Amino acid sequence: MSRIFVTGAADGLGLMASKLLIAAGHHVVLHARNDQRAEEAMSEAPGAETAVSGDLSSIKETIELAEKVNKLGHFDAIIHNAGIGYQEPRRGNSIDGLPPLFAINSLAPYILTSLIQLPERLIYLSSGLHREGNPSLDDLTWDSRRWSGYQAYSDTKLHDVLLAFAVARHFPHIYSNALEPGWVATKMGGPGAPDSLADAPKTQVWLAVSNDEKALVSGKYFYHQKRREYHPAAGNATIQEGFLAACERISGIKFPDGNKLQ
């Protein structure tokens, strides 16, 4: 049985994936935004090992979350599920002065990946909208651009694929992949979403624990357990490195050296 950490596990796809993993006998640690949500997650996912809290819109709290997770010991897989949608009419500011979309969807996975002891498998949730993301990496924090929640969300979902593929390239001894769960009727997706909600958490679970040779790959992009085409820029090492460098500059957290960790 595997040990898996799932971010954003208090509701939605994170909670659904956690329940599937627990039902299959795996050991699951949940993450939620705050202590109250963590307690709710534990009650919603009986059988979970424990739950840890941390507001991913805060660089400080995300760093503290990584410390909490490391104290729990080694994980076989981490599912970077946490994210927010694009229904924001204005840029907004996190405690660090960043757009919450960028802070939660893009920067937090970077920080957690950099600071948590690397597992054997990393899974990053993206979206079909990543294909509309801006690969230029210009003005990541929307200081100059006119705000568009739709574009900002699309950008962050491209960032998640860039991160997954960069990790795969830097750490060839682990499996690092991205996926789109489909447009489904979660709180984020809305009641009119057309894709199968039942199928939406299955690919991340499969990538986290399956010994199917099709899941034991790295640097790939999936939809419903099948490989799918992704934004061409996501596979560009120069753009990947540009994203890592920007996250390091904004967060102050250095991306780990793959040569030293192997």
Considering the chains and any ligands shown, give keywords for the structure.
262 residues, alpha/beta, eight-stranded mixed beta sheet, 8 helices, 38% helix, globular
Description of the molecule:
The protein is of the alpha/beta class and 262 residues long. The protein is built from 8 helices and 8 strands. Strands 3-2-1-4-5-6-7-8 form an 8-stranded mixed beta sheet, with helices on both faces. Strand 5 (121-125), helix 5 and strand 6 form a beta-alpha-beta unit. The model has no long low-confidence stretch (mean pLDDT 94).
Concise description?
This protein is an alpha/beta fold and 262 residues long. It has 8 helices and 8 strands; from the N terminus they run βαβαβαβαβαβαββαα.
Topology, please?
Layout: E1 3-6, H1 12-23, E2 27-32, H2 35-44, E3 50-53, H3 59-71, E4 77-80, H4 100-115, E5 121-125, H5 149-170, E6 175-179, H6 202-209, E7 221-223, E8 226-227, H7 237-251, H8 258-261
Parallel strand pairs: 1-2, 1-4, 2-3, 4-5, 5-6, 6-7
Antiparallel strand pairs: 7-8
Helix pairs in contact: 3-4, 4-5, 4-7, 5-7
The count of DSSP E runs of length 2 or more, i.e. the number of strands, is: 8
Which structural class matches the secondary elements? alpha/beta
Number of helices: 8
Strand order of the largest sheet: 3-2-1-4-5-6-7-8
Share in β-strands: 5-15%
Give the overall silhouette: globular
Classify the helix fraction into a percent range.
25-40%
Distance between the amino and carboxyl termini: 24 Å
H/E series, N to C? EHEHEHEHEHEHEEHH
* Average pLDDT number: 94
Poorly predicted runs are none
Q: How would a textbook summarize the main sheet?
A: 8 strands, mixed
The radius of gyration over CA amounts to: 17 Å
